[in-house]
Design goal:
By secondary structure, this protein is mainly β. The protein has a domain of about 100 residues. The strands form three sheets. Strands 1-2-3-4 form a four-stranded antiparallel beta sheet, with no helix packed on it. Strands 5-6-7-8 form a four-stranded antiparallel beta sheet, with no helix packed on it. A hairpin with a 3-residue loop joins strand 5 and strand 6. It is globular.
Length: about 170
């Protein structure tokens, strides 16, 4: 995930410290752990997906496949001056999932932090695309691909907002 010219990703060591957030800083060409957000409850098969919120924060969606619980966190605002400091995380919402109706692989998501809802893009049944709107006490499927499944069709939501600025 790219934010303010740096790349972030979830990394981890399941046996020692759990999962954590890494960052590659292109200005110094180095990667390092930027957050003390270490969550030992993550297991290898859990969904752990990053997203950008309003081009100033990171958000993390985690689905615990043992308890069938989805959690979404968001960081404090990331400024250029303190871009290398540890981030603080705030829980946006927790949602218990119906294991019968909600079987999918999360590919990406967009978070509306103010309204505490997210658009979640998923795949199921060999790459069939599905889209859900999820919130604290709700989830609703709003799209399901009706075409034959194909490994080259991946759901994708863009985290950038187009500008009306003309480039010459």
């Amino acid at each position: 995930m790219s934010l303010k010219g740096d790349t972030y990703w979830v990394a981890g060591d399941e046996e020692e410290i759990g999962f954590f957030l890494m960052k590659f800083d292109f200005t110094i060409e180095r990667d390092f752990c930027v957050s003390l957000f270490r969550y030992r409850a993550f297991i290898f098969l859990d969904a752990k997906v990053l997203s950008v919120v309003r081009d100033e924060k990171l958000s993390l969606l985690h689905i615990d496949y043992r308890s069938r619980v989805m959690r979404i966190w968001v960081t404090n605002k990331i400024d250029d001056e303190d871009a290398n400091k540890d981030l603080s995380w705030t829980s946006v919402f927790v949602l218990e999932l119906d294991s019968v109706k909600f079987k999918f692989n999360v590919e990406n998501f967009l978070l509306d932090e103010e309204n505490k809802v997210a658009v979640v893009c998923c795949t199921r049944d060999r790459d069939r695309t599905m889209v859900y709107i999820v919130g604290e006490d709700m989830y609703k499927q709003v799209y399901e691909d009706t075409r034959d499944a194909s490994p080259i069709n991946w759901p994708l939501v863009f985290t950038c907002v187009p500008s009306l600025l003309c480039l010459h």
